[in-house]
Fold:
Amino acid sequence: MEEFLPVIASSPLFSGVSENELMAMLSCLGTRTERFPKDAFLLRAGDMADSVGLVLSGSVLVIQEDVWGNRNILSKVGPEQTFAVAFACAPGSVLNVSVSAEMPTTAMFLNVKRVLTVCPSACEHHSRIIRNLLSELAEKNLRFSEKLTHMGQRTTRAKLLSYFSAEAQKRGTYEFDVPFSRQQLADYLAVERSGLSLELGKLRGEGLIEFHKSHFVLKV
Structure:
């Protein structure tokens, strides 16, 4: 656990909490750490989530799959970021998403009941964690709303332009790397990979974008 303290301390979930205070809090919050190989499931649809997940190393994909195996990527979560927050905070709710390791991943799980229950005097910064958790929920809700905006566009071209525009505005630059491979980007936007590659080529041919692998430059 100590090797990951800098990562944990840098997480928005523990914003405002020092590393010294963190050590005392982690045992109080009922945490456990697990390692997962590539493609392993951290959580599966149908599970009950009673813990908030925090990625310490590697990265995970939050995905939805239908009974035919069609996959929709909802988000990608990297070090310092959380997952399954909304489900853990809704007692009795069943996951309708799965979380899989994109690469070898280490994750920490925090018992949500202990997170939401303020300790008497041992954890004076506990209320700060609860406020941070609320901020995490709000941010994830905004990200999901943004994804719905992209998916609400009628064509693959429009979905790509919506996604690129949002990324440029979020980062404050017209040049950036996207966190997805081509297949993952297609899954995220709910389009066919072949159609996505075709539209990317057309956008480049029209002088609207330049790209190499996951690096994109918007021409405006």
Summary: The radius of gyration is 19 Å. The chain has a mean pLDDT of 92. The chain is about 40% helix and 25% strand. The longest helix spans residues 126-151.
